[in-house]
Amino acid sequence: MLDFRVPFDNNQAERDLRMMKLKQKISGGFRSVEGAQMFGRIRGYISTLKKQGLNVLEALKQVFLGNPTMPTVLQPE
């Protein structure tokens, strides 16, 4: 209630989960638990980059070059 950096609604959280549910619906699920975890980790990384206004394509390029972009962590005031 006091931190105005936090959005009023949770629509972004719902949007973040929608891709996972869509993948389950289209392909019938994941072939393994590890595959689902990897998918979630990649989607979470991309979502965080977008939320922080970073260039997703450049960040993914840096991941494959061995120099991943680490999103910043917001500290409560």
Short recap of the structure:
By secondary structure, the protein is mainly alpha-helical.
Structural class: mainly alpha
What general outline do the C-alpha atoms trace? flat
What's the N-to-C terminus distance?
A: 13 Å
The whole-number mean of residue pLDDT values reads 80
Q: How many domain units?
A: 1
Q: Kindly state the number of beta strands.
A: 0
- Helix share of residues? 55-70%
Question: How many separate helices?
Answer: 3
Order of helices and strands: HHH
Kindly provide the radius of gyration, computed on alpha-carbon positions and rounded to a whole number of angstroms.
15 Å
By oligomeric state, this entry counts as: single chain
Main beta sheet: none
Low-pLDDT residue intervals, each spanning 5 or more residues? none
What proportion of the residues form beta strands (DSSP E)?
under 5%
Overview of the molecule:
With 77 residues, the protein is mainly alpha-helical. It is built from 3 helices and no strands. The protein is 58% helix and 0% strand. The protein has one domain. It is flat. The chain starts with 10 loop residues before the first helix and ends in a 13-residue tail after the last helix. Pfam families: DDE_Tnp_IS66 (PF03050). This is Putative transposase. Keywords: Plasmid. It comes from Leptolyngbya boryana NIES-2135.
